[in-house]
Amino acid sequence: MRSLTLNVFVWFWLTILAMLIMLVTLSSLRSEVVKTRPLPEHAIENLHHLAKNLERKAAGDPSKLNTLIRSPRFSQSRWLYLSHTDIEKSLSSQDNDLGLDFSHLYVAAESPPFVLFTERYSAHGPALVVVGTEQYQLYQIRPLREPPIYLRIRFMPLWEKALAILLPSLLFSWWFSRRLTRPIDALSRAAKRFANGDLSARVEHQSKPQYELALLSDEFNQMAQRIADNMSAQKRLLGDVSHELRSPLTRLLLACGLLESELSEAQMRHLNRIIKEGHSIEDMLQNVLMLSRLEGQNQMLDIAEASMAAVLGEVLNDAAFEAESLGKTLYQNYPQAAQLRCDMVLLASAIENILRNALKYAHQQVYFSVEQDAQQWRFVIYDDGPGVSDEVLDKLCEPFYRTSESRSRDSGGIGLGLAIAHRAILAHHGKLSLSHQHPHGLRAEIMIPL
Fold this sequence. Notes:
The chain is of the alpha+beta class. It is built from 13 helices and 13 strands. GO terms for molecular function: ATP binding.
């Protein structure tokens, strides 16, 4: 029964069975229903002929009618009923042992003969019988021992049929849909969490799902585990390689320092270039190690209460100096005395990376401001540069991503600045949001909980 195919098949037939049971139940509980249809011409003639015979034989004496309709001549193989406006005066050729309800058998005198159907009998009539001062309507009764189920259902009104079909189908369909969609919803939630970067997301079902969906969930969990393992191995390898490269790089820079006193001026220029590149590589390795620790959540945060000036003062002074050297202007507005809880070094590094990125691509101006609302600090940085496309905007925080593959390290770095800033802000349980600044430029908003 855990097969999805079998479940669909069983629930489909259960729905049909429930509708049939509902129809039968309603048809058994409801009161008697009357339907009519026209009576054929030959039957009308026979009925009128029988009525005339009764009038002639009774010879104007109503007291003779009861004996007449019970006589073999009239009652043989048929059940006659003379309906009167006064139910006490109505006459029957047979005793009503079946308890049939004949209250329907009196209609307006001008009504043409018809066939009247109920669930327990049918009646052909009426034909007018006038004996003396009394008027009767003649019917021929044909009882039904047990009305067939199809006839009982046929007699049901349209609203009861609709109720019998819609109610079970809606209930069973909703029940089945919930059983079917609950594991799909669990799989969807896990996939969404995994896509948003939560590599620990797995599908967990509260009850056993159908076999096919259980198999799909298991395969998703296996896939997620393999991806998580590969990502962990990649980060571990990146961290290990970066760490191992630092030792020979340190020895290389030390050896360069020892050579400074032994080289000519021309050779010193080349050596200085080597030393500069060595320090650049050291900075890159430091960034890679930082990113690796942040992604692996191995970076220990030193959370403490600090003033805004202590966190941002040096960063903004360096950024203002850099902006001036580039012929650009940095506008800043923040509450210097305000207090916030953070890792001063990590948060300052994140803001510095974003500020340097803004200064690099701004045409003339970069704006920095800090605001506080009821739940968080909001750091806003935007520039008047060319901005980026929508496609690039979604990838700016990916490690090693650069907007142009042809850009050199001097212009575009190795694509770690925004990635490190993003991870550092996440480590503070905050959020980094990048968007377009109108009419042009890039806007970065950092939200840090109070």
